[in-house]
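User: My collaborator and I are trying to settle a disagreement about how two of our proteins should look. Neither of us wants to argue from intuition anymore, so we agreed to look at predicted structures for both before our next call. Could you fold the first one, then the second, and keep them clearly separated?

Assistant: That sounds like a sensible way to settle it. I'll keep them separate. The first protein:
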Amino acid sequence: MIRGLLILLLLGLVGCGTPEPEWNGAGADAVVTVRAWVDRADVVPGKAFWLTVEVDQAVDATFELPDPGANIQGLTILEVESPAPEQAGNRLLVRQRLRLKAPVAGTFLIPGVEGTWRRGDDVGTAGSGPILITAQRTPSAADGTDDALRDLKPVAPPDANPAPLIAGGIGLLVLLALVAGGVFAWRRRAVPEPTPPTAWEVALGAVASLERSGLLTATDQGPAAYEVSAILRRYVEARFGVRAWRMTTGEVLRALPREIASQIKLEQAVREVLEASDRVKFAREPMSPAEMAGWLASIRMLVGATTPRPEAP
């Protein structure tokens, strides 16, 4: 009995949505602090809610936030947002928001995330705890039943023979099914299904979109550096299967596939883009628009060199 009460208490405490913590960006003693919370306590199956993961770190520290959605099971990820980092004094605030949905009623565990930070010669880890989500349907008036008594009616006369009507209805249903099947087959043959974009098409499209966004010439260069690093990491992960999105820059360079590592020009391009974007993101080192445009040119060169060529007939 005591064990059951403890389980109920745990569900009640962990399953509730926690309010967003206040952040003043100064006075924190920890090098890196990671927090996570959901925006609502009454999670309803089929209704979206937000999970926010926040990293509060010293400006001179380096920390790579692992992908919060990598190990989420049972919940559907609808959208991912990565707002621009905020700085207050010697503190930097980085947030990532995931729009989730519980497809069915039940209890779901959102795992915590943990990463390694480095500041000078000091190395440590920081992470957030897990969050237990209980999704349940709210009572509705539509779920009730009408138990009121109704007046009795006299016995109705027997119906006529329904066999002809039933046979006619079945024939009509068969005819409609045949027509619908023919229309469906014709539409599938006439309109081919679109093929999903390739990894290199996605990367080149993201580079072109970043050039048009105006972030390369913005005063705050942090969002542009973050997006450049993300484009390169997503391409390496989608093209070669390296989990670059969850790795630090050093880990990505050590895990580069032979197709990149064996070519000095390609390996140097990846290294320069990741290390330079880290200096902008974490050390706030200023870069000229021409240097940042050079990062995009390096990504285009990498994509062009690693795009599969069609085989000659």
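The second protein, kept apart from the first:
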Amino acid sequence: MSIRLIAKELYHLQKEVEKIEKQIEDASYEKREEMKDQLRKTKAERDRIRRMLNGSLEK
């Protein structure tokens, strides 16, 4: 995967994390737990892509 595509994916995931965080603030208590799980998974994917990008840049 090219660095450019990795960077685009990282940007997309960061925006998704921000969107979910905002939704959690506005959500009812019942929905928050489900959304927090989604946020955790999205953050994990974002961090994985960030590590991939950092690894590509170091070569």
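Some points you might bring to the call about the second protein. The chain has a mean pLDDT of 93. DSSP finds two helices and no strands in the chain.
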